């Protein structure tokens, strides 16, 4: 990586253009405090997803619904 690439990468990180690592936690505990946000969503009745490092996309929410629709016995 040359000097220009490093400078561009640092600038992207500073401006928030380069997403960092993300964690998505699925729980049956309601932390929503009554209001959903892009980072805290009830994706199925009684199941909540909490995202750290960026908001959940509609595609991610749909994938969670498909994955957990049959129950939590996936493994």
Number of strands: 3
Number of domains: 1
Helix content: 25-40%
Instruction: Report the sheet-strand fraction.
Output: 15-25%
Strand order of the largest sheet: 1-3-2
Cα(first) to Cα(last) distance is 41 Å
Kindly state the mean pLDDT as a whole number? 83
Number of alpha- plus pi-helical segments: 2
Note the run of SSEs as H and E.
HEEEH
Summarize the structure in words.
The chain is of the alpha+beta class and 75 residues long. The longest helix has 13 residues, at 3-15. It has one domain (19-75). The protein has a three-stranded antiparallel beta sheet with strand order 1-3-2. It has helices at 3-15, 58-68; strands at residues 23-27, 40-44, 47-52. 4% of the residues are buried. The protein is elongated and about 50 Å long. The model has no long low-confidence stretch (mean pLDDT 83).
Break the fold down into its secondary structure elements and pairings:
Elements: H1 3-15, E1 23-27, E2 40-44, E3 47-52, H2 58-68
Antiparallel strand pairs: 1-3, 2-3
Concise account of the structure shown:
This protein is α+β, with helices and mostly antiparallel strands.
Which features does this protein show?
21% strand, 3 strands, 75 residues, 3-stranded antiparallel β-sheet, alpha+beta, 2 helices
């Amino acid at each position: 990586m040359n000097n220009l690439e490093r400078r561009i990468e640092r600038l992207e990180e500073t401006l928030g253009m380069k997403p960092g690592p993300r964690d998505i936690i699925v729980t049956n505990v309601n932390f929503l405090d009554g209001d959903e946000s892009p980072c805290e969503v009830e994706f199925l009745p009684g199941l909540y997803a909490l995202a750290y490092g960026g908001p959940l996309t509609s595609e991610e929410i749909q994938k969670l619904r498909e994955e957990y629709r049959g129950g939590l016995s996936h493994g």
